[in-house]
Here is the input.
Amino acid sequence: MTPTTPTRETTLGCDACVMRHKSDWQVLSDDEIQMLSRGQSKHCYETGQTVYAMGERSRGVYCICSGAVAIRQFDPEGNSVLLQLAYSGDTLGYESVLTGETHRCSAEALGPATVCLIGTHTVKTLIARNPDLGLQFLRRTAAKLQDAQEKLVQHATLSNRAKLAHVLLILMDRCGRRGTDGAGSIYLPVSRRDLASMIGTRHETLSRIIGRMENDGLAYFSGRSVDIPRIEALLGEIRPQLVG
Amino acid sequence: MTPTTPTRETTLGCDACVMRHKSDWQVLSDDEIQMLSRGQSKHCYETGQTVYAMGERSRGVYCICSGAVAIRQFDPEGNSVLLQLAYSGDTLGYESVLTGETHRCSAEALGPATVCLIGTHTVKTLIARNPDLGLQFLRRTAAKLQDAQEKLVQHATLSNRAKLAHVLLILMDRCGRRGTDGAGSIYLPVSRRDLASMIGTRHETLSRIIGRMENDGLAYFSGRSVDIPRIEALLGEIRPQLVG
DNA sequence: CGGCCGCATTGACAAACGTCAATTTATAAA
DNA sequence: TTTATAAATTGACGTTTGTCAATGCGGCCG
Here is the structure.
């Protein structure tokens, strides 16, 4: 959302990147990595800065070196829906490269983040040269599709409370710390409004659900910190009718 | 859902298929089409028969020659959610081929349908031989992902009534007939229960929404037939707050 | 330090939704 | 055609949610 331009960095090249062997680009050979290095530029973003905006023309694909990025979409009224959280190693924005259309979502840094932009021409050249890269993108996209479809099923069948429990469990996996026994704690990467949009409700309703969860001893919220006494208890929330 | 086995047909080969130049396989050369023909088998399904079931091991990808197929997912309680309607020319089930996992969704014929099964080995060979096929799948998957994400945004921001209006407009495009003026009519390919699952609500609620829509003169339902006096009126339903 | 602004919480009320149950209408089978 | 079975509708009722509005909390900048 912040319009400030990100810092451009002179970079060491992708062969030295920490994500070299953990991202989709791992299928590239050494000289293809050199091509990638030449066709790429590294940028540093502060909290809230926009990596790319919805409606913008695609400039290439984006590879997250460090930090977390929120993928969101806005509806005509200006409401935003948080669709995905992306972390280091993730590659973003190749849908628009393939279709040639403008970005359907916007990407925004959730904290200090470094992201590399690989120009459209370089991406297309690399895909043509090494088909494995395209296959890698295909696998990744298929996984995202399954993810989105699972969310659709949950939106259709689960209560908001169960959906919140599910999101907490996912965030627990992503950025939570496990305690001694079945306990855990999370530092949320997102605001309450975004959390509400993730489960498909208003932020006021989310507040009430949180209140009820605290009453029931399931999870305790304080700012962006969440404490979960028993992680399995959250799991039980997702399928209430199966417990009986 | 019907466990009856589909009819197997001796086929003429994919080079003669009506979908030859309208499906993802259009990127294949003549001799690659011959490979496709040899690695494929054609099956005829009756209404309600299962093409592949959730949890089943993948046997390959499925190409719809004629008819319509419903892609659905079941949650642990047995509720089903209709995720996608597929028509002739569409290719299904390649996610499972890529990941090697079992099918996450089930596919079921909505009416008499003919579907070709292309064996896993043939698919992998063709993708390795002609990277354009993989790219074609990638484009298709990316489009489906955008579709799913748009639905997620709608589930989070629109009322059930607006969502129904939206589904009707999509079905209007797919299988509707336009009248003289702004009117139109649709023969629904799905039951009320499925329609309800598409907009994420119970079938009883859908019944009531339909009742209110008929009261307001927006659409008239009779069995699986829907009459829409003014198509633009449905469009206005989707963004009620923008009309003011 | 204080004011400002956005985020979060809480309350009150009306509207929408889910559930259970009964009834009517289709559809398929005998 | 009759019967059985599933789908669809309708009613009643309690719960949840959205909306509007007011208040509390926290960071940021002057």
Chain A has nine helices and 13 strands. Residues 191-193, 203-204, 206-208, 210-211 of chain A lie near DNA strand C (CB under 10 Å from a C1').
